[in-house]
Design goal:
globular, mainly alpha, two-stranded antiparallel sheet, about 75% helix, 8 helices
């Protein structure tokens, strides 16, 4: 029994590391959205964290978010501020989604969890951007220029809170739901790989443990 648990733990650690590495790579596959300022990018780096959160549990998804940003830290252009914000948003997205799904593993709960996680992530993006991200960006770009990038798209935007509420919060929700959509499309196909040990191998290990105990 102990050997079975050890194999399972090793498989989980390996899976988390691989998913974190995949998430790290996906951070570089980003693109602009025409209705957003050019410095705001769309990517799907939360996808591996959501998949892991559903398959293994919410805190495993959070670990994927952590690994992703730790790997990105040596290449940071924001002195770690961007990575910190990305980690915070990822955790507030994947943990609620995974926790609600864990209560009852149904498509309905997966959808509810995803919606709750996406809403929380979007709401948290406001204070995260207002108090952490944009104050750092003003070291490189005046606040007037930042607001100007938003005003160029919607002239009525005059302040940072307006910009965040009109643009960033809905965009963060959209980004989360885009990751959820892909998750729903591919989860069934790849979840056996994430879950780890096949039933046959697990049964074999358990039988070996039982035989050992009987022979002792």
């Amino acid at each position: 029994m102990q050997k079975s648990r050890q194999i399972s733990n090793v498989r989980k650690i390996t899976t988390i590391a691989i998913m974190g590495a995949i998430a790290f790579v996906l951070m570089y596959i980003e693109f602009s959205i025409p209705i957003m300022p050019g410095f705001i990018k769309m990517d799907f780096s939360e996808l591996p964290a959501v998949l892991t959160s559903f398959a293994l549990g919410p805190w495993y998804g959070a670990l994927v978010c952590l690994i992703k940003n730790l790997l990105h830290l040596p290449f940071t252009t924001t002195a770690g501020v961007g990575e910190l914000a990305n980690f915070i948003l990822g955790v507030f997205f994947t943990v609620p989604a995974g926790y609600i799904y864990k209560i009852n593993r149904t498509k309905k709960n997966a959808l509810i969890g995803s919606l709750v996680g996406a809403v929380i992530m979007a709401l948290i993006s406001f204070p995260s951007n207002y108090f952490v991200v944009y104050p750092f960006y003003t070291n490189f770009m005046p606040m007037e220029a930042i607001i100007g990038a938003y005003s160029a798209i919607l002239p009525s935007v005059k302040t940072l809170p307006q910009a965040l509420l009109i643009f960033n919060v809905p965009f963060t929700f959209f980004k989360a739901m885009a990751n959820v959509l892909i998750t729903f499309l591919i989860y069934k196909r790849i979840s056996p790989l994430i879950l780890g040990i096949a039933k046959e191998n697990t049964k074999k290990v358990v039988k070996e443990e039982i035989v050992k105990e009987e022979n002792q």
